[in-house]
Design goal:
2 helices; ten-stranded parallel beta sheet; 21-stranded parallel beta sheet; 31 strands; 46% strand
Length: 329
């Protein structure tokens, strides 16, 4: 019995001796694995000389989770897909006082941005079915670019956020700047010379499907369609203290506010637009003029309130040539 007791006592001791190193190894392995997972992404800056490389090839060398910068020199031809980048800057380097240029490759969209945080600056983006598509919860910042000659839209913002500072969007078909279910702020931006195409009437700025546009100095002129069109529960706010908001010489009216949309147009100027009115308000929509503004020289009226509950708030505070809207509020 004594021997059996000793045997029973020693057996768990042998098992404990065997498991101890194994548990230690597992513990060390878990620490090592955690350490590997915690290694931070390494920021990288690369330079693309357009005669020698492409932006698309440069993107393949980058860790999408790092802070990356691509410097662009010269005139490139490319179709650039950007997917799931955490913090990417693509910056043109001016030579001879001119921005770097990216021409479309085979008529494709030049920038197609999905699920990414991207800054694009100091580039001329020329041609393509889209100049830029920013979509699917991306955050896109544009600074000092010229976006031109797209056969589809100059810029499409779809279910995303974007800011524009000092950009020119010109000579594009269908829509210059087209927003769908998005939030955008424009600062010192010009949208001009948009033409009608196969999928759009040539509006300068289209604000659709519950989108929001904040204006901090914007010029919209000489577009074949309307200057600015709000539709589908969208909203525009003009921050008049930041600079002029000028809508002029557009072919199908200046500013349209329709389908349960709203616009704060205080301090805006809408002049010399044809084919509609300076401001058209219809379809259970409202435009307000609390900070005044100038609305003259448009055909047929300067501010038009449509029969489907189009409401102008305080038009009497603005300079208005002709209107059928009553003084309200």
């Amino acid at each position: 019995m004594g021997w059996q007791s000793a045997s029973c006592h020693l057996a768990p001791t042998r098992r404990s001796t065997t498991l101890g190193p194994l548990l230690t190894d597992l513990f060390l392995l878990s620490i090592l694995s955690f350490g590997l997972l915690a290694i931070p992404a390494i920021a990288k800056t690369v330079t693309v000389e357009c005669e020698e490389n492409t932006i698309s090839n440069a993107l393949k060398t980058l860790d999408p989770q790092a802070n990356n910068t691509i410097r662009v020199i010269g005139t490139c031809k490319d179709a650039i897909g950007i997917y799931d980048f955490a913090d990417l800057t693509i910056a043109g380097v001016a030579t001879g006082g001119k921005n770097a240029v990216i021409n479309s490759l085979n008529g494709n969209a030049i920038f197609w941005i999905v699920g990414s945080h991207v800054q694009i600056k100091n580039l001329t983006i020329n041609g393509g079915s889209w100049g830029v598509e920013c979509r699917e919860f991306s955050v896109c910042r544009f600074i000092g670019n010229t976006i031109q000659n797209a056969t589809g839209n100059g810029v499409q913002i779809d279910s995303a956020d974007a800011t524009f500072t000092g950009d020119v969007i010109q000579n594009n078909a269908n829509y210059g700047l087209n927003m769908t279910a998005s939030r955008v702020r424009v600062t010192r931006v010009t949208v001009k010379l948009t033409t009608a195409g196969t999928s759009g009437p040539g509006n300068g700025v289209e604000i659709d499907s519950g989108s929001t546009l904040t204006v901090e100095q914007l010029t919209v002129q000489n577009n074949q369609g309307a200057g600015v069109s709000l539709i589908g529960g969208s909203n525009l706010t003009n921050r008049s203290w930041a600079g002029p908001f000028l809508v002029s010489n557009n072919g199908v009216g200046g500013i349209w506010v329709t389908e349960q949309s709203s616009a704060d147009l205080g301090g805006a100027t809408s002049i010399n637009n044809t084919g509609g009115a300076g401001v058209v308000i219809t379809g259970n929509s409202e435009a307000s003029f609390w900070q005044g503004g100038t609305f003259t020289g448009n055909q047929q009226l300067d501010i038009y309130c449509g029969p489907l509950n189009g409401i102008a708030a305080a038009p009497q505070l603005a300079t208005v040539g002709s209107t059928n809207c009553p003084n309200t509020y």
